[in-house]
């Protein structure tokens, strides 16, 4: 057992939160090089924090020792969304996850596939009509919003455009408030972002409760059969499932996919992804590896333990950084290169090495749904379009918080495949 590299600093004066949020990739890279270790400590949010940037450390944290490294019950996600399958711990979280799981698998999932196809057609069918380049991130975010509101609330943009738009605006205001200073202040002519978020939350909860009361079909109707721990749990979960977070994550992945496979140099790879589902799967794994939608996650240490043979004291926070875990040179050769073929041969079936949506018993409950939808959207793009950056030279540097995407939203031009000559 070794001592953690780095130091946890002193209260307030030693805090590095601002440095981390300003540029999390540079922050971690600097310390990895300084300590010659992908596990180190410093002070974040004024708490001693261990940073995990290795596959070995992530596997222990998220899988083997998940009963020691827990979700923080004081986390802002709990304050905003309440007790949900994402924020709870222990047996209560396990039983709730078990109760909800059938809604994201099997026949419930199969019944959603037709709607997924219709959403893709509705949102993506006109990409080549405009003579102007398209801001794909915004298009994909709209695509994700139509998916989640249609699946989880039975609100479809084509059938109820005004209701759909109202919910979208409330979800956006709620999300923006999550990323503001958590001060609930209202004075004449000014209201804090956090207070606006709480107001938006109240209005969303009214809509959700009305849906739970009156809808009998689809996901919202099926929630009535779930044995939730209290009467408000169903509404709290729906608030989480329709949050702006999910469309942003879907838009992040789809934007990275179009950038990775854009241009004439990737044309053969696009054609292969149409012909071979395994190749598309490998491409999407590599997209997720290099550009995870979430840079990482956080846990709190319930009792003293070890990670990657380093001692972690009780009550320390632990941050796992997907960006660096996915680039661990001990596991991934040429870690910064886009190489879909790395997931073939003896590496096939190694998806557990990725932690974009968590891993182990607390992984994202909707990961299968996400994978099916992302593949549906990608297949639609591949079968209908060629695309490239327009203009060809753009700044594609990513920002990583709160959800990853290029800092300057890229623009692409799309051409219908029936307008091109395929070689």
Automatic annotation (TrEMBL):
Gene3D superfamilies: Cytochrome P450. One of its GO terms (biological process) is sterol metabolic process. Heme binds at residue 364. PROSITE patterns: CYTOCHROME_P450. Pfam families: p450. Keywords: Heme, Iron, Metal-binding, Monooxygenase, Oxidoreductase. Coiled coil: none annotated. GO terms for molecular function: heme binding; iron ion binding; monooxygenase activity; oxidoreductase activity, acting on paired donors, with incorporation or reduction of molecular oxygen. It comes from the Eukaryota. Its cofactor is heme. Belongs to the cytochrome P450 family. PANTHER family: CYTOCHROME P450 26, CYTOCHROME P450 26B1. This is Protopanaxadiol 6-hydroxylase-like. It comes from Xiphophorus maculatus. The lineage of its organism: Eukaryota, Metazoa, Chordata, Craniata, Vertebrata.
